[in-house]
Write a structure and sequence with these properties.
single chain, mainly alpha, two-stranded antiparallel ribbon, 2 strands, elongated, EF-hand-dom_pair, tubulin binding, Tubulin polymerization promoting protein, TPP/p25, cytoplasm
Length: 237
């Protein structure tokens, strides 16, 4: 009992000398959750998991993988770019010229997609994507070795982006030009534009009442006031 009492007395003395000693204050639950989230995001960005040693150097994305991501997110706002579904896979092969209608057809593309993907999935990963391209490369370039054929197919896809369909281009037409040129308008339509082709606004659409006192078409409007204000030459002031 005496030894235990001495230990307690020593602890009190040490605490008195060092008031900062003692258990660390507990963090609020929200701060703990924020710390765990920050750690997970940092781990994901470095490509490591808990307990693993990873490098903080970012992984360089190749041109082929960049094209894969662009087609993976095409038309889908919820897509992450990490996997590619069958519709965009077919679009990629079509837009990049992998499908030639002879050695590689749309049917071949669909068959290869079903072959490389997992049975329980509707999408393929980037690694499965390269395997699928390898199968199509051997069909498209039969005269070349496997590695050479894959390299040729990769070149067709690298740096490419999805082609946006349905965009209408303006076509120059004499008829359209004549109908959109204000200088060639006649009648009431001509009154809506000035000599430069700029619209007059309300003045060109509504009949404005002229209260100046001049008759319509009079060309010397305002000339009388100029004559009155003009100083007489040769007469003393």
């Amino acid at each position: 009992m005496a030894d235990q009492k001495d230990n307690i007395d020593d602890f009190k003395v040490q605490t008195a000398k060092h008031p900062n000693m003692g258990p660390a204050p507990l963090q609020p639950h929200s701060e703990q959750s924020r710390d765990r989230l920050s750690k997970r995001l940092s781990t994901d960005s470095n490509g490591t998991s808990d307990g693993g040693a990873g490098s903080s150097t970012p992984v360089e994305v190749t041109a082929l993988e960049e094209s894969f991501r662009r087609f993976a997110i095409h038309g889908d706002t919820r897509a992450t770019g990490k996997d590619l579904h069958g519709k965009n896979w077919s679009k990629l092969c079509k837009d990049c010229g992998v499908i030639d209608g002879k050695n590689v057809t749309l049917t071949d593309v669909d068959i290869v997609f079903s072959k490389v993907k997992k049975k329980s999935c509707r999408t393929i990963t980037y690694d499965e994507f390269k395997v699928a391209l390898g199968d199509l490369a051997r069909k498209k370039y039969k005269e070349k070795a496997g590695d050479e054929a894959e390299a040729e197919v990769f070149k067709l896809i690298e740096g490419k982006t999805p082609v946006i369909a349905g965009v209408t281009r303006a076509v120059a037409s004499p008829t359209v030009s004549r109908l959109t040129d204000p200088t060639k308008f006649t009648g009431s339509h001509k009154e809506r534009f000035d000599n430069t082709g700029r619209g007059k606004g309300k003045a060109g659409r509504v009949d404005m009442v002229d209260t100046s006192g001049y008759v319509s078409g009079y060309k010397h409007r305002g000339s009388y006031q100029k004559k009155v204000n003009k100083p007489t030459e040769g007469k003393p002031m």
